[in-house]
Specification:
By secondary structure, the protein is mainly α. It has a single domain, classed as Rhopdopsin 7-helix transmembrane proteins. The protein has 11 helices and 3 strands, in the order βαααβαααβααααα. α3 runs antiparallel to α4, α4 runs antiparallel to α6 and α4 runs antiparallel to α9.
Length: about 300
């Protein structure tokens, strides 16, 4: 793919605020949030790698890959958002904007697919427990993760192959905190109606259908458990609550942005911040603080570290 010979070589991001005082406030909040995102998700990955019980359990293998995608998605957008709070002119190059959109949809598409795989994992674990380790074996898990990255790549390429050839001759102002397809499309110096439909069909329907499939799958799991044993329903609910919460938090903003494009720029910015910061921040909290096995692994790591310290 070759970039078009457009006259615009950079875009201006309006960001969240032009106020210096609010900029300092947001800087502190976003910096702390990003630090927690990296720390929490890295800790999950570390736990899964070094703890023999966790890395042999399919769910935690998938969870570690989810944390990797969350870290990647936040790192793509949040550091620049933090730096921009100290910049009067918040710019991003044309290639930088294209790269940001390409990677955002690569990671986003991969995470959607991975969440579906995690729903399948929970279905097998709860509804077919005797065959769980046989069905969700290591080969299937590796192929599932590779599939999530492949789907993410195909998803982003199907849109970006058209984006990079659009002419941009001005205006070049994006009223958001980072580059995203719907807003950048509006700046092209050509009719983009067909491409806007493509984005809605590709990103919008992909997210909406995935969201519906996930909700249906969790409903099927709960109904199956309820028919087998009413007492087992509460246990299944406690197991699935974290997954359902993550699904709603992840797909809610995406569905509003792409499947139902809103006209309010204020809401657009809120959804962008929620997608880039809140969801990756809440994922490790939901999966670690509410998960007994993860907390037990942290205690084992702490005890191992304390016991290995030399005494004088």
């Amino acid at each position: 793919m070759e970039m078009n010979n457009s006259m615009v070589n950079e875009f201006i991001l309006l960001g969240l605020t032009n106020s210096w005082e609010l900029g300092i406030f947001f800087f502190v909040i976003f910096f702390l949030a990003y630090t927690l995102i990296l720390t929490g998700n890295f800790l999950i990955i570390l736990m899964v790698i070094i703890d023999s019980h966790l890395h042999s359990t399919p769910m935690y293998f998938l969870l570690a890959n989810l944390s990797l995608l969350d870290m990647s998605l936040s790192t793509l957008t949040v550091p620049k958002m933090i730096i921009d709070f100290f910049r009067e002119r918040k710019t991003i190059s044309l290639w930088g904007c294209m790269t940001q959109m390409f990677l955002a949809h690569l990671f986003g598409g991969g995470e959607m697919t991975l969440l579906i795989v995690m729903a399948v994992d929970r279905y097998v674990a709860i509804c077919k427990p005797l065959h769980y380790t046989t069905i969700m074996n290591h080969r299937i898990l590796v192929r599932s993760v590779l599939l999530s990255w492949t789907v993410g790549f195909v998803h982003t390429m199907s849109q970006m192959v058209f984006m990079v050839n659009l002419p941009f001759c001005g205006p070049n102002v994006i009223d958001d905190v980072f580059c995203d397809l719907p807003l950048v499309l509006k700046l092209a110096c050509t009719d983009t109606y067909i491409l806007e439909l493509l984005v809605i069909a590709d990103s919008g329907l992909f997210s909406l259908i995935s969201f519906i499939l996930l909700l249906v799958s969790y409903t099927v799991i709960l109904v199956t458990v309820w028919h087998r044993s009413a007492s087992g329903l509460s246990k299944a609910l406690s197991t699935l609550t974290a997954h359902i919460t993550v699904v709603i938090l992840f797909f809610g903003p995406i569905t509003l942005i792409y499947a139902w494009p809103v006209s309010s720029y204020t809401l657009d910015k809120f959804l962008s911040v929620f997608y880039a910061i809140i969801t990756p921040l809440l994922n490790p909290i939901i999966y670690s603080l509410r998960n007994r096995e993860m907390k037990a692994a942290m205690i084992r790591l702490r005890n191992r570290y304390i016991s290995s310290k030399p005494t004088f």
